[in-house]
Design brief:
Elements (H helix, E strand, L loop, with lengths): L1 H4 L3 E5 L10 H4 L6 E5 L10 E5 L5 E4 L6 H4 L4 E5 L4 E6 L10 H19 L4 E6 L23 H12 L2 E3 H5 L26 E6 L6 E6 L11 E5 L2
Helix pairs in contact: 4-5
Family: Belongs to the DNA repair enzymes AP/ExoA family.
Pfam families: Exo_endo_phos (PF03372)
Cofactor: Mn(2+); Mg(2+)
């Protein structure tokens, strides 16, 4: 699928492997020679993100800096600077069963927003990733039954609202404000994917001033291989 899609930049989340454990078939993906990986320190099989690029970035950073020492060890953010924009690959923490990690999640949201605003002050930003939140009721199949569940709590949804209020745009919902059943994640249980009982947890969020460059945002729901599906952001930059 990656070869057919032929992206200029490929962002991966929840890779669950260290740099040395990246599979050789991923290392050898044609057209994506510049590869940058972040993994959880001392926690193999946990978290992790990658960013693969056709052209070499001007600069690459890992984590979100001193503002978030709590989460940077988890390997959740890789940022590549290109001439016209920053591309951020991010895997936002899950609030956990029983919301046991809701408070750390909310601390991450605040620190991450501050980080994105600092980037945006330099040049436009494209954030690609599993943000672990369904923002509105239209973004999951059963909103009423999930109001107290991770990914749809009022606090997490308000965090995403704050992101939009800080000058960023949910590209898919901007283009398709009424689209229903547009999900990117389905649990493996109960044939959820076949029945399209899902959530939209994966986003391409961009600086408002990139809207003129936004051509489309597609959810590739037929692509198998994970409980999430890929999304594709198409920008003319």
């Amino acid at each position: 699928w990656v070869q057919e899609e032929a992206p200029d930049v490929l962002c991966l989340q929840e890779t669950k492997c260290g740099v040395s454990a990246v599979p050789p078939e991923v290392r050898a993906l044609p057209g994506l020679p510049h590869q940058f990986w972040a993994s959880a320190e001392g926690r193999p099989g946990y978290s992790g993100v990658g960013l693969l690029a056709k052209t070499e970035p001007l600069n690459v950073t890992y984590g979100i800096g001193e503002s978030d020492p709590e989460h940077d060890a988890d390997g959740r953010v890789v940022t590549a600077e290109f001439p016209s924009l920053f591309v951020v690959s991010a895997y936002v923490p899950n609030a956990g069963r029983g919301l046991v990690r809701l408070e750390p999640r909310l601390r991450f949201d605040a620190a991450f927003l501050a980080f994105l605003k600092r980037l945006d002050a330099q040049k436009p930003v494209l954030l690609c990733g599993d943000l672990n939140v369904a923002h509105a009721e239209i973004d999951l199949c059963h909103p009423r039954a999930n109001r107290a569940n991770p990914g749809f709590t009022p606090q997490e949804r308000e965090g995403f609202t704050r992101l939009l209020g800080a000058g960023f745009v949910d590209s898919f919902r901007h283009l398709y404000p009424e689209a229903r059943g547009a999900f990117t994640f389905w649990t493996y249980l109960g044939g959820a994917r076949v029945r399209n009982v899902g959530w939209r947890l994966d986003y391409a969020v961009l600086s408002q001033r990139l809207l003129g460059a936004l051509c489309d945002c597609k959810i590739r729901s037929t692509v198998a291989g994970s409980d999430h599906c890929p999304i594709t952001a198409l920008l003319a930059v």
